[in-house]
Amino acid sequence: MIRSALVATVLAAGPAQAQVADLVSDDVLRICADPANSPMSHRDGSGFENRIAEHLGQVMGKPVEYTWFPMVVGFARNTLFAGKCDLVIGYAQGDELVLNTNHYYTSTHVLVVKADGPLAGVESLSDPALKRLRLGVVAGSPPASHIARHGLMAKAKPYDLMVDRRVEDPSGDMLSDIEAGGIDAAVMWGPVAGPLVRERAGLKAIPLLKEEGAPRLFYRITMGVRQGEDVWKREVNSLLRREQEALDAILREAGVPLVDDYGKALKEGG
Question: What is the residue extent of each domain of the chain?
Answer without folding.
Answer: 15-105+218-254, 107-207
